[in-house]
Design brief:
This protein folds into two domains: about 35-120, Herpes Virus-1 (2-Layer Sandwich), CATH 3.30.40.10; about 125-210, no CATH class. Helix content is about 45%, strand content about 10%. It has helices at about 1-30, 80-85, 115-120, 125-130, 160-170, 175-180, 185-210; strands at about 60-65, 70, 90-95, 100, 105, 140, 145. Mean pLDDT is about 80; it is low at about 20-25.
Amino acid sequence: METKENTNNSDLLNKKRIRDESNINKETKIICPYLSTIKRHLLDFDFEKVCSLNLSNLNIYACLICGKYYQGKGLNTNAYTHSLEQDHHLFINLTDQRIFCLPDNYEVCENSLNDIKFNLKPVYSDKDIEELDKNDKISRAVDGTEYIPGCIGLNNLKNTDYANVTIQALCRVRDLRDFFLKYDDPKTEMVKFNLFVDIGAQCSIRSKMG
């Protein structure tokens, strides 16, 4: 009997602790005043993730106002300086998808930003992947053109159009496509990048050989 009472008391204490923590989080949540400054149409995460100033690939953030990439978020870093000089305050980490407001350096946790995080790093469930080949829904573009939603080409970064076409073709190989959509490992990001670079290089060499 004592054991049951102790268990009930423990459950009540845990529930109270969780409720108290939830209330604290609500009270301490910072409402960012710069959310309306985000320009989604300027965001493009297809480019190589390097700082636009020093070309470093370490600790890179994308400015959610102009779309440019900068290193760091601490004092005197490129992102920090950009926030002061250009009055751009929201940045997303290109590795862990966390969003920060600079120069105040606090994390912004808003559900309204989940679409940006998804576009940076899309996550697909098994069900989502199964539906890819079943989608026959017709959509309409701004100019009235009808199309079936699917894979699109990558940005043409000077002579990468051959690689883009090849990648589009490989996207139709179901097993290969599903592997890259499902595999979630930071080490794989470089594998993916190197694979696409190799494909692009081979295509470029063959085109030059005629």
